[in-house]
Automatic annotation (TrEMBL):
Record protein name field: NADH-quinone oxidoreductase subunit H
Bilayer topology: Multi-pass membrane protein
InterPro entries according to UniProt: NADH_UbQ_OxRdtase_su1/FPO
Record keyword rRNA processing present: no
Pfam families: NADHdh
Superkingdom per UniProt: Bacteria
Length: 51
């Protein structure tokens, strides 16, 4: 029963989430993660400067 649940969970996860491609990860990096990190850097620098 445990093995059946484990296999069913793996199959469910594989069917639910689409396969990630290199281009999808590059788009995520350039369009979302890098701007967020720059904003985080600016906020942190501003807080350090104020306090």
């Amino acid at each position: 029963m445990k093995l059946y649940l484990l296999i069913a969970t793996f199959i469910w996860i594989r069917w639910t989430f689409p396969r990630t491609t290199i281009y999808g990860l590059l788009n995520l990096s350039w369009k979302i993660l890098i701007p967020l990190s720059l904003v985080n850097l600016l906020i942190t620098a501003g807080l350090i400067k104020v306090f």
